[in-house]
Write a structure and sequence with these properties.
This protein is of the alpha+beta class. It contains 4 helices and 11 strands.
């Protein structure tokens, strides 16, 4: 009976731990354990889901003589890789002498690297951590910000229409003279025309913004599909493009509408290679 109870508690424990055990699968985070000179480091980088975006960095070590950690991001290749910016100092966590964290901006899509420099009593040590910078999602606008912009925009439109109406109604009148019916009608038509013009401009701007947002969603990073097959004693790797998806107004995809649409347009914007030379 006691062994059965132990087995039951072990089963409950495994059921509780299983979701956490698979939570890291498919994560875009970069976790490396490297030696920066005499200092062993465990580096965790959480890339941003949008580009440009902020990547979050955490550095841990069991070396207690570390006095500071700094990081400078550069592209992995190209001329910009030779000219790193001024390094950002990571902040030491309160109460943890061996835990540092901070943020860095990744300004463009592609393969980047983080130059991490450790300062300590045994000299300086430096490592380079490769990090992908790709847009994997879009950030929705908060409801409070949407409401604020709609309110302020409405006030601007109504204020401009009111100014046009006042100018057409009273601009040419002498002080103290009341506008007659002709001026009032002219002012009303001016208000209507101004409102129509501004609403048309807003509609055109909304269409332009939606078009840009749709293009950005279609250009989100999609991993290449690979199939492996054995041909005698050789392995063949076949790489294919992912299926493009039709997006609705909210940016979600529908499986029933999934099809291949202009895959080459997406390839032209791809600046990250999933395969590294062995």
């Amino acid at each position: 009976m006691r062994r059965r109870n132990h087995f039951r508690w072990l089963l409950i424990f495994l059921l509780l731990v299983a979701p956490m055990a698979r939570a890291h699968v498919g994560s875009p985070d970069v976790v490396v354990q490297m030696q920066a000179g005499p200092y062993p480091l465990l580096v965790s980088v959480q890339p941003a889901s949008v580009v440009p975006g902020v990547a979050q960095i955490q550095v841990q070590s069991n070396a207690e003589d570390i006095s500071g950690v700094s990081v400078a991001p550069t592209p992995l290749t190209g001329e910009a890789a030779k000219h790193p910016p001024v390094a950002e100092e990571l902040q030491r966590a309160p109460g943890h002498a061996i835990f540092y964290s901070g943020n860095v901006w990744l300004m463009s899509s592609g393969a980047w690297q983080l130059h991490i420099t450790v300062h300590g009593g045994r000299g300086d040590g430096e490592i380079s951590v490769p990090v992908p910078s790709v847009a994997t999602g879009t950030l929705p606008m908060p409801l409070w910000l949407t409401a604020t912009l709609v309110l302020l925009g409405s006030l601007l439109v109504l204020g401009m229409a009111a100014m046009v109406g006042a100018a057409l109604r009273e601009a040419k009148l002498a002080p103290g003279v009341a506008p007659d019916g002709e001026h009032v009608r002219r002012a009303r038509w001016g208000i209507v025309a101004t409102l129509a013009l501004l609403i048309g401009v807003l509609a055109l701007g909304g269409w332009w913004w939606s078009s840009l947002a749709t293009t950005a969603r279609k250009n989100l990073y999609k991993p290449l599909q690979m199939e492996a097959a054995l041909d005698g004693n050789r392995m063949k790797l076949e790489i294919s493009l992912p299926d493009a998806a039709i997006y609705d107004a909210n940016g979600s995809t529908t499986q029933a509408l999934k099809t291949k649409i202009n895959p080459l347009n997406w390839v032209e914007t791809r600046r990250l290679d999933d395969l590294l030379p062995d």
